[in-house]
Amino acid sequence: MYRNPYNCAQTICHAFGRADLAESLKSCGKGGSPGGVCGSLYSAMQILPEQAEEMAEAFEARCGARICRFVAKGMRVPCPECVRTSAELLAQRLG
Description:
Layout: H1 8-15, H2 19-22, H3 39-47, H4 52-63, H5 68-74, H6 79-94
Helix pairs in contact: 1-3, 1-6, 3-4, 3-6, 4-6
C-alpha cells in the first residue's frame, strides 16, 4: 500500500483497519506530521495514543531518530523500513 496510493501515515491506518484516520493524515507524509515526526510513527501513535511514547522510544532505538528528516537523511533509513518498523511496533502492542 505504501506509495500506491498512500503516504507512510495513511499506509499504517489502512493496514490496521483505521481508514477513518487516513484522510486526516494525508499531509503527514514526507515529514509533514506535527513536529516533523515520521509519518508512519505518528500514525501508529494516533491509533494507540496510550502507548505513543513507548512506541516512539522503540522507533527511535531502531531507526536512530523520531524526526523524519533525521531518520531519512541523517540515519539513512529508507521510508519503507520506517513503515515496516512502525507497523511491527503497533502490531506488537495490539497483540
